[in-house]
Design a protein that fits this description.
Blueprint lengths: L1 E5 L11 H15 L3 E7 L2 H6 L7 E7 L2 E10 L5 E6 L1 H4 L6 E2 L2 E2 L3 H17 L7 E5 H4 L1 H8 L11 E6 L7 E2 L20 E2 L2 E3 H8 L2 E4 L2 H6 L10 H6 L4 E3 L27 H14 L8 E8 L5 H13 L4 E8 L1 H13 L4 E5 L3 H10 L2 E4 L9 H7 L3 E5 L2 H6 L13 E3 L4 H15 L2 H12 L5 H13 L10
Parallel strand pairs: 1-2, 1-8, 2-5, 8-9, 9-13, 13-14, 15-16, 15-18, 16-17, 18-19, 19-20
Antiparallel strand pairs: 3-4, 4-5, 6-7, 10-12, 11-12
Length: 485
Amino acid sequence: MRVVMLASEAHPWAKTGGLGDVLAALPRALDAAGVTVTVCVPGYRTALRTAGHPPAARALHAPIGSRMERVDVVPVQDAGVRLVLLRADRYFDRDGLYGDGGADYADNAERFAFFCRAALEWLRTEWPPPDVLHVHDWQAALAPAFLRTSPALYPELAGMRTVATIHNLAYQGRFGWDQWHWLNLDPRFFVPDFLEFWGGVNYLKAGLVFADGLTTVSPRYAREIQTPEFGEGLDGVLRARHERLRGILNGVDYAVWNPATDPHIAAHFNPLDLAGKGRCKAALQAEVGLPANDAPLLAIVSRLAEQKGVDLLAAAMPEVLRTSDAAFVVLGSGDERYEQPLRALAAAFPTRVAVRIGFDEALAHRIEAGADVFLMPSRFEPCGLNQLYSLRYGTVPVVHAVGGLDDTVVEFDPATLAGTGFKFLAFAVPAFVEAVHRALATRRNPTAWRRLVLNGMTQDFSWERAAREYATCYRELPPPPPVVL
């Protein structure tokens, strides 16, 4: 089976978040499972530089609005996966992927409509054409709509099936009606049954409506997004297509996140020898300026955003700190309005709270290795990765029971010693604080705590498992539907 993955990110060529990590790891795991994958991303300035500015294989032209624009097809050799960059300097030769200085580029609607058209023009030249086009998030979601609504433009691709994956439904690519002309679609598709959304155009909705199969990144999130509470206005579309929607849990690249081999941490450890974890804790305490002691060390590594429940965290932590001897370390960046309460917390508890604002990949590894408890009070979480990293590093997660957090963390039972962490149901300070205290109480029982840590470290959330599920998804896709005329 031959699959092309169309996405706006793939690490190390382009990355702003988890999407880039998925497009780095999943294709390799699928290759190992017998699925031949080619990844296609925009030829951003950073991507071309990372790839060593390889030469273009050929030049094509793709429609955008009332004109044709050139795109150079740039295959990248020795990339670890088959990789194609679509170079169009007018759109992608910029410092950022989606914007600069905290603001989106004003022409993002045009940029990613062109990316989807350019990808289809490239795929027309591939022979034989791929069996499946797998698009990720709103930046690539127009491709299935273009394919099914413009059949005369892509006769070579009539038998290609499509899958659209939702990594986070909160990001949809919503633009005003004035951007519709970039799509070169008949106005009859600007209706609620297709791409129209509250008077504007919704790129993600295009993929949800026209793709042959739909996936998202955890089973519970697949159920949640069909409800008004989590559906971000698209719950009706998803309920209408529920038979084509499946949740496939993201994986972890254990070649990168493995305390037995991690080059970023002070000492290595594994389930048979946990001594190194104590040394990692002492090194982390020294690095962030906390006293060296055996008090519980709580941690969070996160985007500072509403989704991540940082407001709940800031409201709850004073109570946690007043009623325990725990210390707390924070690493994060994002919305400035969430930085201030965290800095205030550090000022109020200067010997017990350390806050580091920014992104530091190596420090994130050291926090996972050195902390005792990892906090994830997300309002919603499609999958989540830090709780999976925490489990492997023997750092017990405390999570809000939503999305992938609920799927991957099992509440610890002190009677049977089964479970991997602690969960709270209500998104409220008392529920969060009570869950943290359950974790701290368990830590005071060395036998129960050791079992809890080992339960987490021996879980398997590898990409190999996810790849098998994606391969099954591809095999079970229905034949392409009749074209929309």
